[in-house]
Amino acid sequence: MTVNVRIAIASHLSDAQEYLELGFRKNASSEINLAKAILFKYVSTDLEVEERELNELAHEVFNRQRQITL
After folding, report:
1. DSSP-derived 3-state class of residue 42
2. Residue 43 has what DSSP assignment?
3. Where are the domains of the chain?
4. Please, what is the end-to-end C-alpha distance for the chain in angstroms?
5. Euclidean distance between CA atoms 62 and 32, whole angstroms
6. Which of 31, 54, 62, 63 could form a disulfide with 16 if both were Cys (CB 3.0 to 4.6 A apart)?
7. What is the pLDDT of residues 4-47, one digit of tens each?
8. CA separation for the pair 63, 44 (Å, rounded)
9. 65, 30 in Cβ contact below 8 A?
10. CA-closest candidate to residue 54, choices 38, 69, 65, 70
């Protein structure tokens, strides 16, 4: 399944907003960092990418974040 990069970024930023409203700052920060990673990885936000690629990137970003907080 493919996902539009722009939609993926918007989705993660929306998740970050929700986390902030609930007081989950670390989760919000992770979502923002993932949105930034997607933005930097893909030159064009008009691209359609495999969901698997985005999941792998999310795994990398979230693991990196966990290592920093430990």
Report:
1. coil
2. S
3. 2-69
4. 34
5. 11
6. 31
7. 999 999 999 999 999 999 999 999 999 999 999 999 999 899 99
8. 25
9. yes
10. 38
CA distance 67 to 14: 24
Dihedral sign (CA 30, 36, 20, 48): negative
- Classified as helix, coil or strand, 70 is coil
The residue written with tokens 């939609």 in the block is: 7
**Would you tell me how many other CB atoms lie within 10 Å of the CB of residue 12?**
23
C-alpha 68/C-alpha 70 separation (Å) is: 6
Residue 48, number of CB atoms within 10 A of its CB: 10
